[in-house]
Each structure stands twice: as structure tokens, then as C-alpha cells.
Amino acid sequence: MMFGDARPVLAAALLLNTTTAFAQMPLNEQTLDSLRSKPSVDIEKFADDWVASTGDQRTVATALAAIIADKPALIDHANLIRTIGKRVEPEFTQSVLAKIEVTADPLARGGLLQLLRGAPPNTAASIEKWLSDTRPGEDLVEQSKRAPKLREAIANGAVAFRVCDIVFNVMEELRATNDPGAIRLTRSQSIEARDGHIRRARGTTPDATPDEVKHQPLPSIMPPPTQLPKHPSEAKPTTSTPSGEPASSMPWSIIVVLIVAAIGLLWLLLKGRK
User: Fold this and answer.
1) Is the pLDDT at 61 greater than 60, yes or no?
2) Based on the structure, what is the number of domains in the chain?
3) 169 is a domain residue
4) Each residue of 173-218: pLDDT tens digit?
5) Does residue 166 form part of some domain?
6) Looking at residue 3, what is its pLDDT?
7) Model's pTM, two decimal places?
């Protein structure tokens, strides 16, 4: 009975010693791999102990961000790193944002962006500018070595996320945490489909389609204003046309005929008197 009662105590002591030993280990690839198979309660205990033994929050946050910045392939441990990072907020988010700014490698930038899932909603505004970064943000072949599901996705034609795709998904997650209709880009989508969502997120739209053009109002064409001459001397006389002459005007030929006829009648009158 005595040995039977002691077994739970020994098991608890062994678990405590194991967790404590983990807490004293550096948070590198080997440690992360070892923690992967641990139950969540052990991971939470490790996170508390590791943070307590490492130092101040800024030091812990900087070390966590450096893990992915130095080796982006470890992004499959992002959930574990975020679990530890929650214990040193807001320094964790600040350190990740600072690393993104100084990181030129698109794979490292893509990995760091994924660490921001679960960050405060106002973080979305800080990463929006990276929607213009169209470089590949992940290496599916390298990641598939750890994740068998990615091998299936690659076989089915999956296209790796670009930095801008990762930014879009993180922003959607931060801004619409409880929205079931929030848009999420997937690796099975074409680049053109992703670009359409990203353009709308940036406030730009593609060129109008023919259907849209049909509904656009036609531009109104206004006649040019009549230019008046600057000075009266510049005014040109208008040439009158026959149709524009008044009805009372008489040609000179008719006047001459009438004068000749009048003179002839006057001469005949005078001759008759003589």
C-alpha cells in the first residue's frame, strides 16, 4: 500500500523535474521540438518557468522574435512562441514589429507577421504597408518536411503565400476576430484572386469591366464660348447676301431706266406745245 500511494507523488515529482529541466534549457529548435508532443498544461507550465528564469520582459520578447527572424523554417512552432509571448505583452508585439521593420528577408518577414496573430487589433494599422510586398513569404517545401498536410497541399497545386497574403490574413484576423464571414486567403487560390482582395483592402480597385463601363454616364460636351473682339476696330464687317437684302431696296438699273423714261416723256411734252 505504501508503494502504491507513493506512485502518484513520484510521477508528479518526475513531471515537475522534467518541466523544470526544460525551463532551464535555451529556447532553440531542439527544445521546441521536445515541447511539441507535450500536453498543453506542461507547455503552459514551461512558458511560465522559462519567462521567470530568462529575465525582464523586454529580454524575453526580443529572444522570442529572434527565433523566427534567425530561422524562418521554425514558423511551425509559432503557436508555442505566441503562447510564451502572451506572458510578456506588449513587449512581445513591439519586438516582433521592430524585427519586421529591419528584416529584409521575405521569409523572415512572413514568419514574424504570423507571430502577430492574436495581437491587439490596432496592430493591423502597423503592418498595412506590407500589403505591397509581393515576395514569397514562406518556403512550402521546407515547411512540408515537418508538416505532412503541406505535402498534400503542394501535390494539389498549392501556391506559397506571399508577404502581402500573410499580411492580409493577419489583418483580417485582428480586425474581425468574431466575424464568421471574414475573408481568408488560401494557398489554393490563384494569385489574381488574392490580388483582387488585397486591392480592395488597400482601397484600390481594378480597371472597370465592360459591364461597369456601360453604366457610366457619358461626359457632357459644352460648346466653346463665343469669343468677342477685344476692340471695335477688330470687328470684321459682315458680307450681306442677296437673301439678306431688304425688300424695299431697288437695283440701280431700274432707277436709270425710270430716269431715262421720265426725260423722254418730258421732251415729248415740250415738243407738242411748240
Assistant:
1) yes
2) 1
3) yes
4) 998 766 666 789 999 999 999 999 999 988 754 443 333 333 334 3
5) yes
6) 38
7) 0.65
Residue 248 lies in a domain: no
- 162 φ, ψ to 5°? -90, 170
Domain annotation covers residue 161: yes
Which is more confident, 76 or 209?
A: 76
Which residue type sits at 241?
A: T
Residues spanned by the domain of 67: 55-206
